[in-house]
Amino acid sequence: MFLILQLVAVFTVVSLSLLGSFFIVFANLIEFQSSRVLQTGDLIITCLALSNGLTDVGQVPWFLVYILNLCNNTGEDLYKATDFFITFYNKASSWFTAWLCLFYCVKIVKVNWRTFLKLKRRISSVVKVLIAVTLVGCLALSLPIIFFIQLQSNTSSISAQCKNYYINENSFYVYAAFLSFFTSFLPLAIMLASSMTIVTFLCKHSRKMNKSTNAISGSRGDGPAAVAKMITSLIVLYVLCTGTVFALNSLVVLEGNVLVFIALSCSVYSAGCAMILIIGTVKLKEKCKGVCCRGNRTEKPKHAVT
User: Fold this and answer.
1) Which pLDDT tens digit goes with each residue over 200-223?
2) Structurally, how many domains does the chain consist of?
3) pLDDT band of 51, cuts 50, 70, 90
4) CATH number of the domain residue 98 falls in
């Protein structure tokens, strides 16, 4: 019964994540195909959604092999491929979330610092460089994980062999701490610094607007405020899911099933991230409404005929 519940929960969350993530990717690709231009913010969102979607693509075979104890049929090579694949795209997703927060911070906040103004003018080029550096850096940081994966042949239980395939060495814990610092805590620091800067600026801006009776000037804060809400929601979701992963890593009660819950929390982040991006981005929200309305229109004639 518990096995069935695991599979149902896993594939429900993964399906929602894949649906939302690839909707964002295809929507932005269609816009790029029609206009031949993809805005910098949309580029980061596309990279974020694509990395989330590919993370779940890698988790589908991993879930099947891990939960159903099929490692004897696939060998440790599949674990090495899926764990590297999942780690690479999941860590890239963390950095893309950080760069999205930084991008909106640069676009929204207005200060007269010379360095900040130069960054604002060159933000499009800087973002492209950051994306390239992120991919190369996450690739280098994720690659060593394959050297810590080895099926334990001395175990009598197939379940223990399939669920405890990481080598318990001090070097592995050093690598895990190193990976967590550079791909979890550093992105979170950038997210928090960017969001706090945006919120502080908007609070000061709203105070100035409240002193003015001009309604047109007051409406200009709606866009930045919506972006601030979206970024805050992404950060809260990231903190909850990342905190869950670190909490589960410290629990002994879950034993072999701990990796299932860790992987599931990553899929929850991907699904929630896609939902937040669609709701918080005007163009994606309108396209989503258009798809839903189109589906309702096609169903109406059928009811009318019957």
Assistant:
1) 998 887 777 766 544 444 444 457
2) 1
3) very high
4) 1.20.1070.10
**pLDDT tens track for 253-287:** 445 578 888 889 999 999 999 999 999 988 898 88
Residue 281 burial (10 A CB sphere; 0-12, 13-18, 19+): buried
Q: Domain limits at 160?
A: 2-209+220-288
Average pLDDT over residues 81-104: 96
Residue 136 has pLDDT above 90, yes or no: yes
Domain membership flag for residue 293 = no
Residue that has been written with the tokens 């910098």 in this structure: 40
Measured at the CA of 236, the angle between CA 144 and CA 40, to 5 degrees, comes to 75
Q: Please report, as a single letter, which amino acid is at residue 182.
A: F
Q: Looking at the domain assignment, is residue 299 inside a domain?
A: no
Domain-located, residue 300: no
> Quick check: 42 pLDDT over 80?
yes
Q: What is the mean pLDDT of the chain?
A: 86
**Residue 123 maps to a domain:** yes
Q: What is the pTM of this model?
A: 0.89
